[in-house]
């Protein structure tokens, strides 16, 4: 069965891409396969629970946040094509000291960490940029998402899957029992219409008026202005919510809310917004901050910048924008 399937290694080898980028992608894929093993080991390998540390986002880190951050950081810094890395879990960027380094990797090593201890899906998200220098500083990382040369996520769910774009469509690979990434989802596309939305409704009272109006319309179902019934899903791991949208359509919304007016949103532009936006756009969907402004055009000003997110099926994002 697996003999007929394209291996990720062969897909990477056949890409019309510089050798350096191919080696970065190979390292990301190999490390995600290793992370999958640790995630699957759970309590048996001492991977559950809190680490007792607080990260730069002021969030309590889980043990797996720390373990996976370390795994990705070490593996990528050892790749000669890498000039530097940045992680959601680290205060500052880390230059690689590789004289031939020409790529930057920015990652959320374990997205959805509140799911770890309840055995629900989590994932890894990676954005790859070109570096202007082999000795990058933070300013070199602050490029718009349009500059990404690759975006990848791995989702550790009932199956472990890796979903990848290098700017020429989106492909999904499933990890086999013998540790091979095999092509199972060629040319992933997001249907323009949907009847499914994902939003954390517990925040409703804090949203801006247009978001309230959109949700009101959706919840009225066939009797309301939208004229159709909707279903809701919320995995609490963006990686798993976006994966569902890539598989069967839908919209994922994490809007600005008025609790902390100076914070533009919950999700991070560089580690979550940009890589997911590139994958969604490459699959034919829309990825915006507010229904209109493309996430990929947001000029970052800070490494750990947050943004509001509205992405998924194109026509439904338009409906969100005009609510
Ligand atoms: P953690 O990785 O810190 O758990 O955060 C996950 C996340 O940033 C994103 O993946 C989810 O969509 C979102 O938070 C879930 O947030 P809620 O707490 O509102 O469910």
TrEMBL record:
GO-annotated molecular function: fructose 1,6-bisphosphate 1-phosphatase activity
Record keyword Coiled coil present: no
Known pathway: Carbohydrate biosynthesis
Entry-linked HAMAP family: FBPase_class1
Entry EC number(s): 3.1.3.11
Residue span, Fructose-1-6-bisphosphatase class I N-terminal domain: 8-185
Amino acids binding Mg(2+) 1: 88, 108, 110
Protein name: Fructose-1,6-bisphosphatase class 1
Enzyme's top EC category: hydrolase
Start and end residues of each Fructose-1-6-bisphosphatase class 1 C-terminal domain: 191-321
Family, per entry: Belongs to the FBPase class 1 family.
Alphabetized CDD domains for the sequence: FBPase
Assembly with partners or alone: Homotetramer.
Binding site residues for substrate: 111-114, 200, 266
Residues that bind Mg(2+) 2: 108, 111, 272
Alphabetic keyword roster: Carbohydrate metabolism, Cytoplasm, Hydrolase, Magnesium, Metal-binding
Catalytic reactions of this protein: beta-D-fructose 1,6-bisphosphate + H2O = beta-D-fructose 6-phosphate + phosphate
Localization: Cytoplasm
Cofactor: Mg(2+)
Cofactor note: Binds 2 magnesium ions per subunit.
Pfam annotation, one family: FBPase
């Amino acid at each position: 069965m697996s003999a007929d399937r394209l291996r990720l290694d062969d897909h990477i080898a056949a890409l019309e891409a510089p050798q350096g980028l191919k080696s970065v992608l190979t390292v990301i894929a190999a490390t995600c396969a290793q992370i999958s093993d640790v995630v699957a080991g759970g309590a048996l390998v001492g991977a559950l629970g809190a680490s007792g540390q607080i990260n730069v986002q002021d969030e309590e880190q889980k043990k797996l946040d720390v373990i996976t951050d370390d795994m990705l950081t070490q593996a990528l810094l050892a790749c000669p094509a890498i000039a530097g890395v940045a992680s959601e879990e680290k205060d500052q960027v880390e230059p690689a000291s590789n004289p031939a380094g020409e790529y930057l990797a920015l990652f959320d090593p374990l997205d959805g960490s509140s799911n770890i201890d309840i055995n629900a899906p989590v994932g890894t998200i990676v954005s790859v940029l070109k570096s202007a220098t082999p000795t990058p500083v933070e300013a070199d990382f602050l490029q718009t998402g349009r500059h990404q040369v690759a975006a990848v996520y791995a989702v550790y769910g009932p199956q472990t899957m890796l979903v990848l774009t290098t700017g020429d469509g989106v492909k999904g690979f499933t990890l086999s029992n013998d540790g091979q990434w095999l092509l199972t989802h060629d040319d992933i596309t997001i249907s323009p219409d949907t009847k499914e939305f994902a939003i954390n409704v517990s925040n409703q009272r804090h949203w801006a008026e247009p978001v309230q109006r959109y949700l009101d319309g959706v919840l009225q179902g066939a009797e309301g202005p939208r004229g159709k019934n909707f279903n809701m899903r919320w995995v609490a791991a963006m990686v798993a919510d976006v994966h569902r949208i890539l598989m069967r359509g839908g919209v994922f919304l994490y809007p600005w809310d008025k609790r902390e007016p100076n914070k533009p949103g919950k999700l991070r532009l560089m580690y979550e917004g940009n890589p997911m936006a590139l994958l969604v756009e490459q699959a034919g969907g829309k990825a915006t901050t507010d229904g209109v402004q493309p996430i990929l055009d947001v000029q970052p000003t800070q490494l750990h910048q947050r943004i509001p997110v509205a992405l998924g099926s194109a026509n439904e994002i338009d409906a969100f924008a005009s609510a």
